[in-house]
Amino acid sequence: MTVDVLSSIKGAQPSEAVSKLFDVIKNAHPTNNNAFNANNNAMSLNDLREDIVIESSPLEKQIIKENFPSEKNGFLVVSKVIEE
Amino acid sequence: MDSQIHKIHQQLVNKEITCTQLVNDKLGLLKQNTHNTVNSLLDTLALDLAKKVDQKIANGETIGLLEGIPFGIKDVYMVQGTITTASSNLLKNYKSAYTATAIQKLLDAGAIPLVKENCDSFGHGSSSENTIFGAVKNAINPELVAGGSSGGSAVNVAKDYTVFSIGGDTGGSVRQPAGYNTIYGLKPTYGRISRYGLMAYASSTDCVGPIAKSIEDIRIVLNTISGKDVKDQTTYASAEIEQSSILNIEHIKTIGYFKNFVESDAIAPEIKAAFLNTIEKIKAKGIAVKALDFFESNTLVSTYYTLAMAETASNLSRLDGINYGERVEAENLKETYSVTRSENLSEETKRRIVGGNQVLSQGFSDEIYLKGLALRDEISKNFENDFNEVDIILSPVTPNTPPKIGDSLKDPHAMYLSDAYTVGFSLGQLPTLTVPQGTATGLQISAAKNNDELVLKFANFLKDTL
Q: For B413, which residue in chain A has the nearest alpha carbon?
C-alpha cells in the first residue's frame, strides 16, 4: 500500500528529511533487539478506573453538535459510504 | 527574578491594584503585541473571573495564591467553549467540548486564563513557524524564531504578557523556547501531570509543562496541576514540593554532563565555552563533576522522531473532517478523508504522519520501529546507570542560538537535529528544567524519574552561583 493511501492524505510522498532519520535507525546496532519498552507505563489491573458510562453534560453535547462539519435536522451528515 | 505570583498576590490583597485592572492591562498588551503570540483572546471569560476576584477582596474574603493571576494556554489544550485550533487549518473553528485536567485545576485555584497561544501545529516543529497564525517572533530579537513548539507561550511570559503559561513538551517544546527567550520552562517527569485534554502528539513523551520567570512560580504552578487523574491512567500521585525544601543543596554531591554534547562539531563555540565555564564554577563550589558517555546526537534524534512520528500518525488519524474539523467534500467517504487531510494539514504535519505510517507498515516495523523501541530502552537504561553515579545531569539546551525566521522551514532535517540535546530526556521521561543561565540559550537540569524537587533545588543553587 502506498503512503498516501496508508495516511489518507491525497498525493502524500515520503520525504528525504525523514528517510535520513530512518537510515540512522536501520544502521544502528542495539544490544537488545527484544524491545520491551523500559518506560513501563502499563497499568496495574488493581488500579483501573471504574467501568461505568458517564453521561456527557448538555453543554458538552451541544458543543459536539456545533462542531459537526455538516448537519441536518440535528444529525451529522456524512458522505456516501464506501461502495467497494 | 523573584516570584511574580507572590508579588501580584500581595498587590491584590493590599488593594494596590484591582484584578480587573491587571487583566485589562495584560489583555491590552496581548492585543497590541506584534510577536504573533495570540491565536485567540479569552477576554470575556477573563474579565468575568477578574470581577469575581475583586468582589471577593472587596468583601474581605481571603483569596488563594493563584486567585486572580493571569496566565496563558498553548492552543493545544481544551478549555470548554473556547476555540482550540492546534494552530492548524483543520481545526481553525473547532470548539472544545470539555476542559483539560491541568487547566481545570488552575481554574479551580482561581487563576485567570487570558489567551490561547500560538505554537507549531499539533506541536510539530521547533520554531513556531508551522502555524496558520504567522511565525512567532523571538522576545529578544524579533528577527529570530521564538523556538517551539510552545513559542507563543514562551514569548508571552518573557514579555510579561502573561504571568505564567502552560506549554506542552514532547521532545523539547517547552525547554527549547524557554531557552531561546531566556526564561524558565519545566518538562516534569512523565505522568506527574495529567495529559487529559492535551491534544495528543506522541503519547509516550507528551508532558504538560509550566513556563514562568522564576523557579518559585514554576514550583507553585507545578504543585497545583500535578496529581493522579483517572482520565489519564499514566499519571501517578506525587507529593507537594515545599518552598523550604528546594532552598539548599546539601544532598547534591555529584553532577554529570555528556561529553559528546560538548565535543560535538555541531555545537556553537560560544555555547560550548559558556557551558564549560559553568562547569568550572560549579566545581569551584565543591561539587564533583563527572563527564559521562551518551548516545550520539544522530541516534537520539532519529530514535525520538521515529517513535514520535509513529505515535502522531496514529493519534492524528482521527482528524478526518467527519465529526469535526474543516471537511472538504469529495465523491465518496474515502476521498473526503484524503482530500480533507491533504488540504488542511501543514507540510510538516503531513511529513510526520507519512513517516509514522511508513515505520508502522509491514516490512518496516521490524527494521525501524521495533529497533527504535530497543534503542529507547538502551537510552533509558543509560540514564538509570548514570543516576546511580550522579544526582543531576547538566546540559546545554540547544547546540546553537535561535535561527532567523524562515531558515528552519527550508531544511527540516537540520531542524530535527537542533533538538539533539532535548529529545533524550523526553525518551527517558525525566524531569528536566531549562534555566535562563549558563549559555546564550540556557541550561537544562535533569534528574532521575520522579525527582522534580531535586531539579528545582539545583536551579536555585545555579541562580545563586552563576
A: A17
Q: Is B464 exposed, middle or buried (0-12, 13-18, 19+ CB in 10 A)?
A: exposed
- The shortest CB-CB distance from B98 to any of A6, A35, A60 is to A60
| Contact: B381, A38; criterion CB under 8 Å | yes
Contact assignment for B377 to A43 by CB distance below 8 Å: no
Pairwise CA distance, residues B231 & B216, whole Å: 28
Of B143, B89, B147, B90, nearest in space to B119 by CA: B147
Q: At A42, list the grid cell.
A: 502499563
What residues of B are annotated to the active site?
A: 74, 149, 173
CA distances B339 to B24, B105, B132, B357, B397, Å, are: 43, 39, 18, 17, 39
B80-124 pLDDT per residue, tens: 999 999 999 999 999 999 999 999 999 999 999 999 999 999 999
* Prediction ipTM score: 0.92
Q: Quickly state the pLDDT bin for B1 (edges 50, 70, 90).
A: low
> Could you tell me which chain A residue has the CA closest to the CA of B319?
A8
pLDDT the model gives residue A39: 59
Q: What share of chain B is helix, strand, coil (3-state, %, to 5)?
A: 45, 15, 40
| DSSP 8-state assignment for residue B369 | I
Inter-residue contact B129 to B405 (CB < 8 Å): yes
- Alpha carbon of A54: minimum distance to chain B alpha carbons (Å): 12
| Residue B185 dihedral angles phi and psi, to the nearest 5° | -150, 125
Judge if the upstream peptide bond of residue B165 is cis by omega within 30 degrees of 0: no
Minimal Cα distance from B297: which residue of A?
A: A24
How do residues B424-449 score in pLDDT, each as one tens digit? 999 999 999 999 999 999 999 999 99
CA-to-CA dists, residue A34 to B118, B370, B378, B389, angstroms: 41, 8, 11, 27
What is the DSSP track for A35-80? ---SS--PPPGGGPPP----PPPHHHHHHHHHT-SSEETTEE--PP
SS3 B145: strand
Handedness of CA B10, B13, B19, B22 (dihedral sign): negative
C-alpha pair distances (Å), B29 with each of B12, B117, B137, B160, B217: 20, 14, 15, 9, 21
SS3 for A25? helix
- Smallest CA-to-CA distance from B72 within B212, B252, B257, B266 is with B212
Chain B hits for A22, CB-CB cut-off 8 Å, are: 302, 306, 355, 358-359, 364, 368
Work out the minimum CA distance from B115 to partner chain A, whole angstroms.
20
Mean pLDDT value across residues B354-376: 91
Say which of A15, A28, A32 has its CB closest to residue B355: A15
pLDDT band at B366 (very low <50, low <70, confident <90, very high): confident
Query: Phi and psi for A64 in degrees, rounded to 5?
Result: -60, -40
Q: Cell for B86? A: 492546534
